[in-house]
Amino acid sequence: MVYTLMRNAEFNREKVLRSAMTAFMFKGYNKTSMQDLTKATGLHPGSIYCAFENKRGLLLAALEQYKQDRNIEFQNFFANEQPFFTELKNYLDNIVNECISCDSAQACLLIKALNELAEQDDEVQASISESLTNWQTALTEQFEQAKLSGELKTNRPSDHLARFFVMGIYGLRTFAQTHPHADVLHQLADQLYQDLCV
Question: Which residues, 6 or more positions from 96, have their beta carbon under 8 angstroms from its beta carbon?
Fold first, then answer.
């Protein structure tokens, strides 16, 4: 969608927010300057202030766009076109590949912002918490559907499985920041996958 600012300057909001995401994920919020953001988004400082009020406003908008993008990605992986465990493995492999790439554009903005800002900014914390809660709820629904269909045979509650999976992803993304060998990340991901399968 194209948005119009004062003096009829137009910009693609989604494209701008995704560019801002990459900038924030590369340097972190505090180290990302307005110059970094104007370079990344192609907007003049005045346009950023007009559209988002300030750097914090741009971060909050970027978090919302990130949530929307990740929700669509999740839905695409779990479109029920393949067996549940195939979808789960593909989803997990995609996350591992993001970790291995060391590409800031593939990093997790939620975890980055959570580590840096959550205790300093209640609104940022609320936005991140909502996104992570929604993600866990979506996973819980997938595990529950797999149990109902007979694909997943376990007595463990679906919400427990979802929390365990989320914890594993947190761990993988955090551990990946120490730049371990790709084989190590794949081994850890495989162990997480196997623990969910039993």
Answer: 172, 185, 186, 189
- For residues 106 and 174, membership in a common domain is answered with yes
- Is pTM beyond 0.85? Reply is no
Place of tokens 């972190």: 28
Task: Enter the tokens of residue 113.
Answer: 């912002």
Cα separation, 3 vs 61, in Å, equals 14
CA torsion sign for 24, 26, 32, 36 is: negative
The answer to whether 139 and 165 have CB atoms below 8 angstroms apart is yes
**Residue 36 and residue 123 in one domain:** no
Would 70 be classed as within a structural domain? no
Examine the domain organization and report whether 142 and 173 are in the same domain: yes
* Domain around 22: 1-63
Residue 51 shares a structural domain with residue 8: yes
Q: How far is CA 1 from the centre of its chain?
A: 22
On the CB side of 189, CA atoms within 13 Å amount to 25
- Once rounded to an integer, what is the mean pLDDT over residues 96-125? 73
| Mean pLDDT, range 77-106, rounded to an integer | 86
Percent of the chain with pLDDT over 70: 89
Kindly state the tokens that stand for 180.
Answer: 């371990």
pLDDT of residue 102: 63
Cα gap 112→85, rounded to integer Å: 29
Share of the chain above pLDDT 90, in %: 58
- Looking at the structure, tell me whether residues 116 and 164 fall in a common domain: yes
**Which pLDDT score, from 0 to 100, does residue 118 have?**
63
